Amino acid sequence: MTLLNLHNVAASYGSSKALFNVNLTVAEGEVMALMGRNGMGKSTTVKAICRMIPASGQLTFDSQDITRLASHQVARLGVGLVPEGRRCFADLSVTENLNAAARRGPWDFSRVTTLFPRLGEREAQRADTLSGGEQQMLAIGRALMTNPRLLVLDEATEGLAPIIRQEIWAAIAQLKSETGMAIIVIDKSMAELAQVCDQATILERGATVWTGAMAELTPDISQRLIGV
Amino acid sequence: EGIKVGMITTLSGGGAGLGIDVRDGFMLAIAQSGRNDIEVVIEDDQRKPDIAVQLADKLIQSEKVDVMTGIIWSNLAMAVIPSSVAQGKFYLSPNAGPSVLAGKGCHQNYFNVAWQNDNLHEAAGAYAKGAGYTNSFIMAPNYPAGHDALTGYKRMYEGELAGEIFTKLGQTDYASEIAQIRASGADSVFFFLPGGMGISFLKQYADSGIELPVVGPAFSFDQGILQAVGDAALGVVNTSQWNKDIDNPTNAAFVETFQAEYDRLPSLYASQGFDTANLLISALETASPDDADAFRAALEAADFDSTRGDFAFGSNHHPVQDIYAREVIKEGDVYTNKIIGVALEDHSDAYAADCSF
Amino acid sequence: MIRERHLNALVLLLLFAVPLWAFFNDAPFTITLATRAVIFALAAVGLNIALGLGGLVSFGHAVFFGIGGYSMGILAHHAQTYTPLMEAPFLIEGTKSMPVIWLVAMVTSAFAALLIGLLSLRTAGVYFIMITLAFGQMFYFFSISWAAYGGEDGLSVYVRNGFPGVNTLVPINFFVICFVILCLVVLLNTLIAKSPFGLALSAARQVPQRVQTVGLDPNRLKLVAFVISGVITGLAGALFADLNRFVSPTMFSWQMSGEIMIFIILGGVARLCGPIIGAVTFVMLEHFLGGLSEYWHIYLGVLLLIIVLFARGGLVGLITGREVAHD
Amino acid sequence: MSTLLIIEQVLNGLQFGVMLFLMAAGLTLIFGVMGLINLAHGSLYMIGAFAAAAVAGLTGSFVLALIAAMAAAAVAGVLVEMLIIRRLYATDHLDQVLATFALILIFSEGTRWLFGSFPLFLNIPDYFSGPVTLPGGIQYPLYRLVLICVGLLVAGALGLFITRTRVGIQIRAGKNDREMIAALGVDISKLYTLIFALGAALAGLAGALVGAIQSVQVGMGEPVLILAFVVIVIGGIGSIKGALIGALLVGLTDTLGGIFLPELFKLFMAPSAAQSSGSALASMAIYILMGVVLIWRPTGLFGARI
Amino acid sequence: MTDPILATHDLQKSFGALKATDGVSIDLLPGEIHAVIGPNGAGKSTLIAQICGGLTPDAGRIDLLGQNVTHTNTRKRAKAGIGRTFQISALAMEDTVLQNVLLGALGASGSPWRFFRPILSDTTLRDKATEALTRVGLQDYAATLTSELSHGQRRQLEVAVALTLKPKAFVMDEPMAGLGAEGSKLLTGFLDALRSEAPILLVEHDMDAVFALADRISVLVYGKIIETGTVDQIRSSQAVREAYLGDGA
Ligand SMILES: Nc1ncnc2c1ncn2[C@@H]1O[C@H](COP(=O)(O)OP(=O)(O)OP(=O)(O)O)[C@@H](O)[C@H]1O
Ligand SMILES: Nc1ncnc2c1ncn2[C@@H]1O[C@H](COP(=O)(O)OP(=O)(O)OP(=O)(O)O)[C@@H](O)[C@H]1O
Ligand SMILES: [Mg+2]
Ligand SMILES: [Mg+2]
After folding, report:
1. pLDDT along chain D (306 residues), means of 10
2. Per the count of CB atoms within 10 A, which of A1, B59, C223, C259 is most buried?
C-alpha cells in the first residue's frame, strides 16, 4: 500500500526555485533511498514533505492530501523527521529533547536509550554541549519518540564514527524488519544504502530523474547521476 | 479684524488631564464672552519640550498668532517662553511659573495668571507655621520644581526639619520614605508630588497607619485626581489660590457653567485657564496686540473678574493674590475641597525684586 | 518597483526641494519641519551604521544625541552669560561658533561611545540592547539632577549659534547646513558599507567566530563602528539643540533612543536611505496627524502597525521590493 | 539609623522587588521563552489596572476586580498575539520593537479614550488594609505582606510549569527552533498564544495588585516596563528564577540606595546638597547595578552561557 | 627529524567531572596529513578548539612553529598561521560567496581599517579570493548569496576561506561532513594536493578519505590518544577496531 506519494512537486525559496518536478512513492514498510549530488534538492524534498516550505503539486500521505496541512499536522499523521544538521534543542537536556514531542507507541525513553546507550549516560546534559555524534543520535531518538510511520533520515550518519554508523545502519535494518516502519534515507554511503534500501529515487536539479528498485541501480547509472 | 491665540498644551499621554482642563476653562471663557473674533489654535505638546518648541515655531511662523498661552509644565515653559517673547509675542501663562521667569529672566510681554511656582509651597509653609508645627518632614522629587518646592516651604515655615528627602522623579512606591517618616519623630509632613506620584504616596501613607498631619500644595488634591486618591486624602490640608467655594459671583457662575458644559467639576487648572482667557478678553476690550505698549498696559491693569476675587499683577507680571488653606472633604459621593482659612494674604513672590524690564 | 539607488536620489532631492519651495512661498515653518526631519535622519543614519552594518542594536543612542545637545547647550550658555566654563587649570570659555561646538560634540560623543562600547560589547543580542539602555538611563537621571545646567528644566539659548559666512538665523540657511551634513554622512555611509571595514564588520555581525579565525577582532570592528555611529548621532544632537535653541534631559530619555531606532525600522534596516525615509515619515505623520484629534496617537499606532505588518524591510523594502544581492 | 528601621527598609526592598517580579514574570516568559520583545507588556499591565478599577468601582469586590484584570489583559494579549505578533516571530527583533511600540500608542490612547484623562480609583480591600505589627515591633502594611506572598507563589508555580511540565518543555524547545518543534508534531502557534495569554494575565494581575497602592493612570505601564526589562536582564532572560532574584536585587538596590546614598554623602557634604546628589546617584543605582552585572556576567545571573 | 609545525604537549581540559582532553600530545610535521579519529564525543572538537584558541586548556602547552601559543587568542593564532575550518559551517549567510572569501583575504592582509575605498576595487584581494574559489570549484558561484548554497557547497566554501589565509598549518574539523560521495572524492583529491602547501591536521569520520589521505593517524578515545601510526597499523589495531572502526572497515 502506498504510504507517501509526491506527484509533480515544485518548491522554491523565496524567488529561487529549488524543486521543479519531484515524483516519489514510498510504500508501507518500504525503505527508500533518496539520492543525488550535493544541492540537487534532496533536503528540499524532505522539507516539502514535512511542510516546512510551501510546495505546489500533489503530496499525499496515507491517501490523505497533505499539500495544505501545517507542519505539525503532517507530523501527527506519522512523519518523523531527522533533519539535516541535527537541529537539537540547544537549551534542553537530552531527556527533555526526547520527551518534547514524544507520542505514545512502542518507542519510548528506555527503548531509545537501549538503542543509543550514550544518550542514557548523558540524559541530563544540555544538548548544545553534546558532541556532534551524540547530537545526531539524539535527533534520531527524538524522531523515534514520536513513533512515526514514516521516518525521514536526512544525512543521519553524517559525522558519526564508523562503529556508530554501523549501529545506525543496523538499527535501520532492525526498524525495517521488526517494526515495518517506512523509511526515507538520504546518505552518501552507497554501500550501506544498497544493503538496506528496497527502492531508490535520484534527483537532479530538483527533478526526479530515475526511480526504481535498488537492485536495478547499475553502477553505470549511478556513475552518471550521482558521480560514483 | 480678529486676533489669533496660540495654545500649546498637553493633550495626550500621561499628563493630559491638566492640559485638557486648562483648555476647557479657557475655551469656556471665550465662548461666554460671545466674541467670535478670537481664534484659538490649539496644539498638543505631548509633554515633550522639543515638540513644544517646534509648535511654538509653527504658531509664530505660520499661524502668525498674536498671543500665546497654554503650557502646563515648567520645563516646557522654559523651552518656549523666552524665545517667544523675544520674538515680540505676548505670553499668558495659565499654569507654569518657573522662578527664573519671575526674577532675572522676566520679560515685559510675559504674564503669569496662575502663580509663581513657589507660591503654594510658601503658603503651605505659612500654614504649617500658623498651625504650630515645629518639626516637619519634607519631601519632593529631585528636579528643579521639587527643589523650588522645598525652598518655598522653608521660606515661610521657620520650624525644625525632621527630615528632607528628594525622591526619584516618577517614583511610585514610597514604602521606604514612609518608614523614614515614621522613624523621624516629625510632627507634620509636607510633600510636593504632582500627578500620579502624589496619588501613590497618599494611598500608601494612609495605609501605613501613620497619623501625622499632612500639608501639600493643591496639585495633589486637585479635582481631577482626588477621586483616584479616595478616602486617603480626606482631611488633608492643602494650599491653593482657588477653590470652587470661593464666594464671588464670577466663581459661582464659572463652577456652574463649567459643570453644565463638561459634566465634571472644574479643577484648579480649569479656573486658571478660565481666568487667563478673561484677562485676555479684558485687555482686548481696550487695546489690540498690534499696539504692544497699549496692550501690555491693558494686561497690567488686570481689569477682569477673576474666579479668585481680587486679582492684581505685581511689578514682575506675576499675581498678587490670597492663597487659601483648603481641606479635603467628601460631598455626597464626590471628594472635593473646602476652604478653611487664608494662608497668605495678598502674596506676591520672592523674585520680583530681581526683575527689571 | 524602482531601484533602491534611484529611490535614494529621489528622497534626497525631495528633501531638498520641499524647503526650497517653502522658502519661495514664505512658509518658514515647513523649513523648520524639514530641518527637524533632516536632523533626526542624521541621528538615525548614525545609529544605522552600528545597527544596520554592525548589528549593534543600541537602545542608548540618546546618550550621544544628548551629549551633542548638551555640548551645544553648555558652550552656548557660558558664551551668552559671559562666564567661563572652567578656570583652572586653564581657562575654557563658552562659544557660539557652530564648527567649534560640533567638534566638541563629536569628540565627547566619541569618548562616551568608546567607553560605553568597550563595556557593552562584552554582551550580545538582547543583553546589548539592555546594557545600552542602562547607560542611557544613567545619563538621563544624571542630567535631570544636574542643577548647574538646569536639571530637568534644561537650558535655553536665546540666539542660534553662528557659522562663518552664513546667517544661521534665516531658517533656510540653517536647513542647508544640516542638509549638507546629512549628505556627507550618507556618502560616508555608502563608502563604509562597501569598504574593507564594512565587509569585515558585516561578517563580524553574522559570524564573529569566523572573523576571529581569519585573524581579525570582531569586537574591535564593532567598537569602531559604534564610535563612528555615536559621533554622527552626537553631531545630530548638537544640530537639534541649535534648531530648538534649547536642550533638556528628554534628549537623553529612552523614548528618544527608541524614536531614533524607530526611524530606522520604519524606513528599513541597513538601507542607505532607510533612516531618512523613516525620519521624514515619522515627522510628517506627527505633524499631520497631530491636528486630527486628541487621540491621534491611535492613528499613528495603527499606521505604524500596518507598515510593520505589510512592508517587510520597512518602507524602502515596500517601494523597492525584495532586497537584491550586493553588487 | 536604628536596626529596626533598616530591617523594615530591607522588607520594603523585598516587597518592591516582588512587585517588580510580578510584572517581570510575564515579560520573561514572553521575551525569554518566545524570544519576543514586547514593549506593549506595560500596556497589558495598565489594562489590568484599569479593568480592575472599573470592576471594583461597579461591584465593590476586589476579588472580582483581580479576575477581571487578568481576564481583560489575557484577552487583549490573545488578540494582539493572533492578529499581530504571530506574523512577527519569524522576523527579527526590530520589527517587534516597532510593532509593539505602535501597540503602546494604541493601547494608551485607547484607554484614555475609554476612561478619560484622569487617574482612576482602586483601593486596597478593607480586609487587607492597615498595618500589622511584626515581631520586633515593626508596623508593616498587611497588603504589602500579601503582595510578597502572591509574588513568591507565582514564582514557584511558574518555575515548576516551565521546567517540569511537558508544555513547558515544548515552549522552551520552540524557543530554540520553532520550525523543528512544529515538524515534530507540536502545534507551536497554539502554544504561543497560550503563553502570551498567560504572560498577559500575569501583567494584568500585577497591574491590579500594584494599582491598588499606586495611581491607576494612562502611561503607568512604561516606567514599570523598563524596570521589568532591567530585572529580567539582570536575572538572565527566560529564567524564572533569574527574574525573581533580579527583581529582589533591583528592589533592594533601589530602596536601600535611596536611603543610604544620601546618608553616605552627608558624611562629607552639606545635608541639602548631599540629599540631592545622593538621590541623584540613587536614581541611577539600578542601572549601575545592571551595567555591573552584565559586565561581570554578560548573559545575566542565570542566563544561558554563550 | 624535522621540527613539527604544530605540537601539543600533555593538554588537559575538563568540563566538570568529564575529562574531555586528558593528556593529549600530538604533532604535525611539514608536508603531512595527520588524521585524528575517534568515537563521537572523544574530544576531537575540544582538542581543535584548544589548538585554535576557542578554549583555553587547563594544563599543557601548544607550540606553533616553535612558539608557545598556549595563551594567545584565536586571532593571534590565525595570524601566526593556523587555518581552520569548522565542523558546522560558520559563514556570513547574508553575504555573497565572494564576500566570504574576501573576508579571508582581508584577514590575511591584516588591515581592515580602510573605510573609503570599495573592497572590490582592491584587485590584490580580489584575485586572491577568486583564486581560492576557483581551487575549490566554486568560481561560478561568486555572486551567489551564501544562504542559497547547498550544504555541500558550504563545506567547499569553508575550505576556500581557509585557503585565502595561506596558513602554515590547516586544522580541519570534518571537512567531508555533508559532502556527497562525489564531493568527498573531489575534496580528497584536493586535500591530497594541498598538503604540499601546508600540513593538515584532519579530524574526519569518513574513513575512505582518512585512509586515502593520512600519513599518520592518531586515535583519540575519551580524551586520550590510544594509538598513533600509519594507516596499516591503525587498520590492524584491535583496540582501534573495538573503540572506533567496528568490523566494517
Ligand atoms: N534556504 C535556502 N534559500 C535559498 N536556496 C536554498 C536554500 N536551501 C537550499 N537552497 C538551494 O536549493 C537547492 C537544493 O538544496 P538542497 O539543500 O535541497 O540540496 P541537497 O540535495 O539536500 O544537497 P546536499 O547534499 O548538499 O545537502 C540548492 O541549489 C540550494 O542552493
Ligand atoms: N561545554 C561543554 N560542557 C560540558 N561538556 C562538554 C562541553 N563541550 C563538550 N563537552 C563534552 O565533551 C566531550 C567531547 O566533545 P567533542 O565535541 O570534543 O567530541 P568530538 O570528539 O568532536 O565528537 P564528534 O566526533 O561527535 O564531533 C563530549 O562528551 C561532550 O559532550
Ligand atoms: Mg541536503
Ligand atoms: Mg566534533
Report:
1. 82 88 87 82 95 93 95 95 87 83 92 88 88 84 90 89 89 86 89 91 93 89 88 87 92 89 85 81 89 88 69
2. B59
Chain C residues inside the 8 Å CB shell of D92: 269
Q: Considering the domain boundaries, does residue C97 fall inside one? A: yes
How much distance in Å is there from the Cα of E46 to the middle of ligand 2? 6
**Number of structural domains, chain C?**
1
Please provide the CATH number assigned to the domain covering D3-296: 1.10.3470
The model scores a pTM over 0.95: no
Give yes or no: residues A71 and A156 share one domain.
yes
Residues of chain B found within 8 Å of residue C150, distances taken between Cβ atoms = 78, 144
Same domain, A100 and A58: no
Chain C positions touching E146 (Cβ under 8 A) are none
State the average pLDDT for chain A: 87
Q: How far is D276 from chain B (nearest CA, A)?
A: 6
pLDDT at E248: 55
Q: Which ligand is nearest to the CA of A34?
A: 1
B160 touches chain D (CB under 8 A): no
Q: Is the pLDDT of residue C323 over 70?
A: no
Question: Is the pLDDT at C324 greater than 50, yes or no?
Answer: no
Show the domain range for A11.
1-78+148-160+179-228
Residue pair B80/B53 in contact by the 8 Å Cβ criterion: yes
- Mean pLDDT of chain E, nearest integer: 88
Please indicate, yes or no, whether residues A50 and A154 belong to a single structural domain of this protein.
yes
Q: How many CB pairs under 8 A join C and D?
A: 133
Q: Binning pLDDT at 50, 70 and 90, where does residue C1 land?
A: low
Contact residues for C316 (Cβ-Cβ < 8 A; gap 6+): C4, C7, C267, C268, C271, C273, C274, C277
Q: What is the pLDDT of residues C98-118, one digit of tens each?
A: 999 999 999 999 999 999 999
Residues A140, A65 within the same domain: no
Determine if ligand 2 sits within 6 Å of the CB of residue E233: no
Q: How far apart are CA D81 and CA E63, in angstroms?
A: 56
The answer, yes or no, to whether residue E152 has pLDDT greater than 70, is: yes
Same domain assignment for residues A2 and A32 = yes
For residue D33, what pLDDT is reported?
73
- Domains along the sequence of chain E with CATH: 1-81+168-249 (3.40.50.300), 89-166 (no CATH)
Lowest-confidence segment of A23-37, A139-153, C309-323 by average pLDDT: C309-323
Judge if ipTM > 0.90.
no
| Residue A171 in domain | no
- How many Å apart are CA C114 and CA C123, to the nearest integer? 15
Of D84, D110, D280, which has the smallest distance from its Cβ to C298's Cβ?
D110
B83 has a chain C CB within 8 A of its CB: yes
pLDDT digits (tens, 9 = 90+) for D36-88: 888 899 999 999 999 999 999 999 899 999 999 999 999 999 999 999 988 88
- Please give the pLDDT value at position E1: 57
Adjacent-strand bridge partners of E62:
E8
Residue whose CA lies nearest to ligand 2 atom number 12: E20
Give the per-residue SS3 of chain C.
CCCHHHHHHHHHHHHHHHHHHHHHCCCHHHHHHHHHHHHHHHHHHHHHHHHHHCCCCCCCCHHHHHHHHHHHHHHHHHHHHCCCCECCCCCECCCCEHHHHHHHHHHHHHHHHHHHHHHHCCCCHHHHHHHHHHHHHHHHHHHHCCHHHCHHHCEECCCCCEECCECCCCHHHHHHHHHHHHHHHHHHHHHHHHCHHHHHHHHHHHCHHHHHHCCCCHHHHHHHHHHHHHHHHHHHHHHHHHHHCEECHHHHCHHHHHHHHHHHHHHCCCCCCHHHHHHHHHHHHHHHHHCCCCCHHHHHHHHHHHHHHHCCCHHHHHHHCCCCCCC
Asked if the Cβ–Cβ distance from E112 to C216 is below 8 Å, we say: yes
